[in-house]
UniProtKB/TrEMBL annotation:
It comes from Aminobacter carboxidus. The keyword Plastid does not apply. Keywords: Signal. This is Pimeloyl-ACP methyl ester carboxylesterase. The keyword Signal applies. Residues 1-26 form the signal peptide. It comes from the Bacteria. Residues 36-248 form the AB hydrolase-1 domain.
Length: 261
């Protein structure tokens, strides 16, 4: 008969072996990147990534879409990390607009091989998102309606021009009426990480984007050393330019590597 101490010792040894294997799996230095995690921005939800999702899954990628609560930077980073924890290998982490701040903070996760910024914000560690707007012309057509509880929407009358000028009137109306408000205080939260300092980065910039002042997107993309692709589109390029974005993500998957810049 096997005694109880032996049973416990064997069980602990098995657990330790699993732990070591799991740790090794969390550092996929040479694995091909077949996972993509998509992070939406403010005033939207993850369903806007459907076209990009279809493009990438058609190319054989495993794609997961984060649903940000938009209640704080910390909450959105936590939502993103929960998705990254579930990946079975290295992943490209993609963020649109406010999602760029989220992937900058969350992108130090060991599963992240590379970053793609889609008309997205890219602060540095120790900075806030709000600081990125300083020194650039105001985006006068991007009119916000901030409510007494501190959550902001895009003004209904300005929505199509500001956010979705290259969509149909029907699609723009649906997006306007399905807005997800963001806690405006999130823009004042300080980042502790700047994943772009340790991960190779790509940027897709919409040339007709009305959410940012002239030159702002290019300034951020150049600072982080991103490979830049321009496309004629509105701020809703994550919906209207799925092939262009999927092509850039595909490149980031083929050339990204955890911990390398």
């Amino acid at each position: 008969m096997t005694d109880l101490p032996s049973i416990i010792a064997n069980a602990l040894g098995a657990i330790a072996a699993v732990g070591i294997a799991g740790s090794a799996a969390a550092q996929p230095a040479s694995e091909p990147v077949k996972n993509v995690v998509l992070v939406h921005g403010a005033f939207a939800d993850g369903s806007g990534w459907r076209g990009v999702y279809d493009e990438l899954t058609g190319r054989g990628y495993r794609v997961t879409v984060v649903q940000n609560p938009l209640t704080s930077l910390a909450d959105d980073v936590a939502a993103t990390n929960r998705v990254l924890d579930r990946q079975d290998g290295p992943a490209v982490l993609v963020g649109h607009s406010w999602g760029g701040t989220v992937i900058t903070e969350a992108g130090v996760h060991p599963r992240v091989a590379s970053l793609v910024y889609v008309s997205a914000l890219a602060p540095d560690a120790g900075e806030t998102t709000a600081q990125q707007y300083v020194g650039h012309p105001a985006a006068t057509e991007f009119v916000l309606d901030t409510r007494p509880d501190g959550f902001g929407f895009i003004d209904e009358n300005a929505f199509k021009t500001a956010f979705a000028a290259d969509t149909s009137d029907a699609d723009a109306a649906f997006m306007r009426d399905a807005q997800v408000p963001i806690a405006m205080s999130a823009f004042g939260e300080t980042l502790t990480n700047a994943a772009w300092r340790a991960r190779p980065s790509w940027a897709v910039i919409a040339t007709e984007d009305k959410a940012f002042g002239e030159g702002m997107l290019h300034t951020m993309a150049r600072r982080i050393g991103a490979r830049i692709t321009e496309v004629r589109a509105s701020h809703a390029l994550f919906m209207t330019q799925p092939k262009v974005i999927a092509d850039v993500i595909d490149e980031a998957a083929r050339h990204g590597a955890p911990g390398k810049k």
